[in-house]
Amino acid sequence: MNHSAETATERRKFNRMSVDTEVNLSLIGSNKKFTGRSKDLSAKGVAFTTSETGLKKGMLLEMVMNSNNADTPNLETVIEILWLKTAGDNNALTIVGASIKEITTPEESSGQEATAEQV
């Protein structure tokens, strides 16, 4: 298949999963904090919507994707904005596509679990 005839889905290296949860974001190097709503997640990227203005391609953000499950920790990452697209009534929302640069969630240590079992 020639490259121009490929769809975006065929060019993707990783499958996307639909994930609908709140995300807390902060601009690295500033005090700017805002929220959004995740749309999908893959091994190397994330898409979310936000009403925040002033975002630009190339910005680095810290993102916490909130888990709705007590057994699953929040996903904490550093992301880089790759693209932005306006959406919603009066273009009030921005859909943001970003690559995951780093996962910063501390791993559950087996030592903590052992301590809990010993009690």
Give the SSE string: HEEEEEEEH
**Text of the CATH class:** Mainly Beta
Task: Evaluate the radius of gyration.
Answer: 17 Å
Number of strands: 7
What level of helicity do the residues show?
A: 10-25%
Q: Tell me the fraction of residues in β-strands, as a range.
A: 35-45%
| CATH-level-2 architecture | Beta Barrel
Output the CATH homologous superfamily: predicted glycosyltransferase like domains
Tally the helices: 2
Major sheet: order of its strands? Answer: 2-3-4-7-6-5
Structure description:
The protein has one domain: predicted glycosyltransferase like domains (Thrombin, subunit H, Beta Barrel), CATH 2.40.10. The protein has helices at 8-11, 110-118; strands at residues 17-18, 22-27, 33-41, 45-50, 60-65, 75-87, 93-103. It contains two helices and seven strands, in the order H-E-E-E-E-E-E-E-H. Strand 6 and strand 7 form a beta hairpin. Mean pLDDT is 82; it is low at 108-119. Strands 2-3-4-7-6-5 form a six-stranded antiparallel beta barrel. The protein is mainly beta and 119 residues long.
Give the structure's gist in a few sentences:
By secondary structure, the chain is mainly beta. It has helices spanning 8-11, 110-118; strands spanning 17-18, 22-27, 33-41, 45-50, 60-65, 75-87, 93-103.
